[in-house]
Specification:
The complex is a heterodimer of chains A (180) and B (783). Chain A is an alpha/beta fold. Helix content of chain A is 36%, strand content 15%. Chain A has one domain: 3-Layer(aba) Sandwich (Rossmann fold). In chain A, the strands form two sheets. Chain A has a seven-stranded parallel β-sheet with strand order 1-9-8-7-2-5-6, sandwiched between helices. In chain A, strands 3-4 form a two-stranded antiparallel sheet. In chain A, helix 2 runs parallel beside helix 6 and helix 4 packs parallel to helix 5. In chain B, helix 9 links the parallel strand 10 and strand 11. Chain B is 42% helix and 13% strand. In chain B, helix 5 crosses helix 23. With 783 residues, chain B is α/β, with parallel strands linked by helices. In chain B, the strands form six sheets. Chain B has an eight-stranded mixed β-sheet, with helices on both faces. A six-stranded parallel β-sheet of chain B has the order 9-8-7-10-11-12, with helices on both faces. Among the domains of chain B are: 30 residues, no CATH class; 156 residues, Rossmann fold; 63 residues, no CATH class; 298 residues, Rossmann fold. The chains are: A alpha/beta (180), B alpha/beta (783). Chains A and B meet through helix 3, strand 6, helix 4 and helix 5 of A and helix 13, strand 22 and helix 26 of B.
């Protein structure tokens, strides 16, 4: 399979497609450059295994390292609570996407719209559509998909990766963001 | 618009003057008696007459578009790239294009129900007479067609009265479809208004179809104790000849049932069905059996159990003829909408058609007369069953293991699966001789077989799954209450007050198709949860079936464990897709019967009432089709929120409220004319939930209405908080928006909630007599 093709074969978007993240430094640089990043975490983060842990465990470390606030969707909030982490907000995936496309929204902390949104743990097709909405109606916002599979509607996305390779990339991103 | 009334038909008349043959005369409408009620302002509304009402809703619930494709390819200017603010050659932008596609979907859905209704009405007039009385509940139902009364402003009494309703609907759908042509509508909001109009027209069509078939075919008439009927593959006696009916149009199935009865074959041939035809045939003949929702279609076909397959219309697999050939079962197509390339044998003798089907000379036939379908299907089933010996298209375990060894491990099956199921893992395990993981896929598989189409080795993966889960399939034996149809007026009188005051926390309808993210059991779980909480739970279509295919620890399924009455704690199967009109009808009748609002042609006022006072929510957890879109559209215009599952996000847009924008949530207090903050009630109009848990919390939240009494709001908040804590592990962070006065706070949670309110800086507000319509302000009327 071509690594920068949509994971679900028929989910072809159109002329504008995500740039593949060829090395972890790209994500780290984007987060470092962003003034108001945010990380959206869907319910699958509690189901997806990544090495010895779940994706949610990695994302908590990512958020702590990069000082990126987290918005949880669906019912995953309790997984964070069990791990002693308090997200900045919890709201449905549809709501956070809708707010991110509104230039007047003041963000989760009331201080202004976000300039970078990272996504992980959402159902593939749902994230695909949310990113499509943001790509088309929120051109100031940059989006990054941290999932294992290529999301063509993001600004940047990992190509389709094997589990080990994905873990290696995520670990590298986190390492580079420590002390941000 | 022209309205037909008197109709004279003379087949043959011989007189001194000569012979008259095939004479038909239709003249203008004859009104038997003036309706008792004054006609409202918008009878038979045109595309734009309710536009202002639509815009009121759309100001609160703004569309969030999620394009499924960046381009438009509908004309030869294209493809046009509309991404990121670009316009197409015609000038259309992306928002308008998305809403245009939604309108197209809703027009397809409405046209489908409408032509279905037209076919039923014409056929039933032919069979039962034009004067056949509309009777959907005897003395228990005086408001026999609430949607039609509301939209059209007429009180249909006979089947022929429905003709002018259908005329109107056909005109409107044509207008709406024309608006999607290149160079017509250019505004996304106007497209959305037209979407609402299509939904409303669809709702009328649904009602016409169901009240016609209930009346003429004597289906259950608003009966809370409609019979419990069999559902599940395990209920079928495969030793008998088996006829499979699938689709939505009951007429061929009725004729099959009648033929069997009139020819002493009843009980000797199994009549089994899928999708809404199955619902409706069990409403007509409770001995018929429902196989399951539409996702069971392929696995049932390949099981080889059906000896004859009769397809009518809607939701039928386009490859059903190919699948029928695999098991050497003849297929009869019975609808002009779905001819499948088969020879038209409508005018041939039944004997000749049966002979050709039984001998295998033809794989199937198109027969457009339901009576003939009935005879041919029944006779063919009896004759072919001993020859077919239930030939199936499902491989042996040994063959699966051998085939699985050819797997290239390319992942194409997984990448084609809508639910991203671990198919490859299961196939690899099968290659090692174990089928357990294939069997584990069974419950979550939606039966689309895209995995097979994608497989470069042509592995019959769906059949693998069916074989691996053969034992589970054979154990599928449940009961479902046959679709009861309408809600009785007396039931509305009994629960109208508690619903409007909020003491019955809500009316929740689980409706629609079977494109579930995690199997149908989630529908059953949700329905049971809300019934236990004393909501009124309604079901219809494939969702009603999925709710049935579940047993509790005592071995009871939801329809056995819960009442079929429209009352707190009931689980009420109204019936097939077209019976969804009774759900809207119940909401309308609360406004009309309980609150005594004028009904005829008074759409805005009734919708305003429902939106602000009736805590109803639709949940279409597996919504898949264009029909589901148009059904939802009908509820949107009434101001009733609809939740879909995650696959529903593929409808390309949601209608979301913004609870953080206070100015969006003001209503008029009809007593004073003051604008009052009423809170985000309901918060959304069309919402795609990511998980069952999120959907349940949102459902409880969306049942709140500005009119709730303090007691009612406290009850609703109790459920909202409780579900949120249990399923999401947290107290909701928006409680302060729903508590108007301290009296709204549930007593059992007082300390906890008051602490939250203090933290949020909550201030006491007012409980209005809510309306969005300035003309409903009583003070202004007085001055």
């Amino acid at each position: 399979m071509n690594r920068a093709e949509p994971w679900q074969s028929a989910e072809i978007p159109g002329p504008k497609k995500a740039l593949p993240i060829s090395k972890p430094e790209i994500v780290a640089a984007m987060v470092k450059k962003a003034k108001r990043p945010i990380l959206i975490v869907g319910h699958k983060a509690a189901e997806i295994e990544i090495g010895e842990e779940r994706l949610v465990d990695y994302l908590i470390r990512f958020a702590n390292s990069s000082k990126t606030p987290i918005v949880t969707t669906a019912h995953i909030l309790k997984e964070f609570a069990e791990r002693g982490f308090t997200p900045a907000a919890s709201m449905p995936a549809m709501d956070i996407a809708n707010r991110l496309q509104d230039p007047e929204w003041k963000g989760v902390d009331g201080k202004g719209q976000h300039d970078l949104a990272l996504f992980a743990g959402l159902p593939y097709y749902m994230e695909w559509l949310m990113l499509s909405g943001l790509k088309n109606f929120s051109q100031e916002l940059k989006t990054v998909s941290l999932g294992r599979f290529y999301q063509p509607n993001a600004s940047w996305s990992f190509p389709n990766l094997g589990l080990e390779e994905w873990k290696k990339n995520l670990d590298a991103v986190e390492n580079q963001l420590k002390g941000r | 618009m022209p309205r037909k009334g008197m109709h004279i038909k003379i087949d043959e008349l011989k007189s001194n003057l000569g012979t008259l043959k095939g004479f038909e005369l239709t003249v203008g409408r004859i009104v038997e008696a003036a309706p008792a009620e004054e006609l409202g302002p918008t009878p038979f509304p045109s595309t734009t007459e309710l536009r202002e009402w639509d815009f009121k809703l759309l100001q609160k619930y703004r569309p969030f578009y999620m394009p499924f494709c960046d381009v438009c390819c509908l004309c030869t200017f294209g493809k046009c790239d509309l991404s990121q603010g670009k316009r197409g050659a015609c000038g259309l932008d992306m928002a308008a294009q998305q809403s245009r596609i939604v309108l197209l979907a809703c027009c397809i859905g409405a046209a489908t129900h409408l032509t279905h209704a037209r076919h039923l009405v014409e056929h039933l007039m032919e069979k039962s007479g034009r004067e056949c009385r509309i009777d959907v509940g005897g003395l228990n139902v005086q408001v026999e067609a609430p949607v039609t009364r509301l939209v059209c402003g007429i009180e249909p009494r006979t089947l022929e009265d429905l003709e002018e309703v259908l005329d109107y609907c056909e005109t409107e759908v044509t207008h709406l479809l024309s608006a999607t042509h290149t160079g017509q509508e250019g505004s996304s909001l106007d497209f959305e208004s037209k979407v609402f109009h299509a939904g409303m027209i669809d709702q009328v069509s649904l009602e016409v179809a169901d009240i016609a078939q209930i009346s003429a075919l004597n289906l259950p008439k608003a009966d809370p104790e409609a019979p419990l009927v069999n559902i599940g593959l395990g209920t079928i006696d495969a030793s008998k000849p088996v006829i499979m009916v699938v689709g939505h149009n009951i007429l061929p199935a009725v004729e099959i049932s009648d033929y069997l009865e009139h020819n002493g074959l009843q009980g000797m041939v199994e009549v089994t069905g899928l999708c809404c035809t199955a619902h409706d045939i069990t409403r007509y003949e409770p001995k018929a059996k429902i196989v399951g929702p539409i996702s069971w279609q392929l696995r049932y076909l390949r099981s080889g159990i059906p000896d004859v397959i009769v397809v009518d219309e809607q939701c039928i697999r386009a490859d059903s003829l190919d699948e029928a050939k695999k098991i050497k079962a003849p297929l009869i197509a019975s609808s002009a909408k779905n001819c499948l390339g088969l020879p038209n044998r409508t005018h041939d003798q039944a004997d000749a058609i049966v002979a050709d089907l039984v001998s295998g000379k033809i794989p199937g036939a198109l027969i457009l007369e339901p009576e003939k379908v009935g005879e041919v299907a029944a006779r063919t089933a009896v004759l072919i069953a001993p020859k077919r010996k239930k030939l199936k298209a499902i491989p042996s375990s040994r063959r699966i293991i051998e085939d699985a060894k050819t797997c290239r491990k390319c992942y194409e099956c997984v990448r084609a699966c809508p639910n991203d199921l671990p198919i490859l893992e299961a196939v690899i395990e099968a290659a090692n001789g174990k089928l357990r993981k294939l069997a584990d896929l069974y419950d979550d598989c939606i039966g689309c077989a895209r995995c097979e189409s994608a497989c470069p080795e042509n592995l019959a993966i769906h059949s693998f799954i069916a074989k691996a889960a053969e034992k589970e399939m054979k154990q599928e034996a449940y009961l479902i209450r046959a679709g009861r149809g309408a809600i009785q007026d007396v039931e509305i009188r009994n629960v109208g007050g508690p619903i409007v005051l909020g003491e019955i926390p809500g009316v929740i309808a689980f409706v629609g198709c079977a494109n579930y993210p995690k199997g149908g059991e989630e529908v059953a779980e949700m329905a049971i949860e809300f019934a236990k909480r004393r909501y009124i739970v309604l079901t219809s279509g494939c969702s009603a079936m999925s709710a049935a295919m579940y047993k509790d620890q005592e071995g009871k399924n939801p329809y056995e464990a819960y009442s079929g009455a429209f009352d707190a704690g009931g689980i009420v199967n109204v019936g097939s897709c077209v019976a969804n009109s009774h759900i809207a009808g119940a909401a309308i009748k609360i406004a009309s019967i309980f609150a005594k609002r004028k009904l005829l042609g008074n759409y805005e006022e009734i919708a305003d009432y429902i939106h602000n006072r009736v805590g109803a929510v639709g949940v279409a957890w597996g919504a898949m089709s264009q029909k589901a879109a148009s059904i939802a559209g009908g509820f949107w215009r009434l101001g009733v929120p609809v939740i879909v599952g995650p696959h529903g996000s593929k409808y390309r847009r949601v209608l979301l409220g913004r609870k953080d924008l206070d100015e969006d949530w003001y209503v008029y207090d009809a007593r004073t004319g003051d604008r009052v903050y009423a809170g985000p009630t309901p918060e959304h109009l069309f919402f795609a939930a990511e998980t069952k848990e999120e959907a349940m919390v949102m459902t409880a939240k969306l049942c709140m209405r500005p009119n709730d009494t303090a007691k009612g709001r406290a009850v609703k908040l109790t459920h909202y908080v409780d579900l949120s804590k249990r399923l999401c592990g947290t107290m909701p962070d928006d409680l302060h928006l729903f508590i108007r006065t301290a009296a709204d706070v549930p007593i059992t949670m007082r300390d906890e909630i008051m602490a939250v309110l203090k933290e949020k800086g909550w201030k006491e507000g007012k409980t209005p007599d809510p309306t969005l319509l300035p003309r409903m302000i009583r003070k202004k009327e007085e001055t």
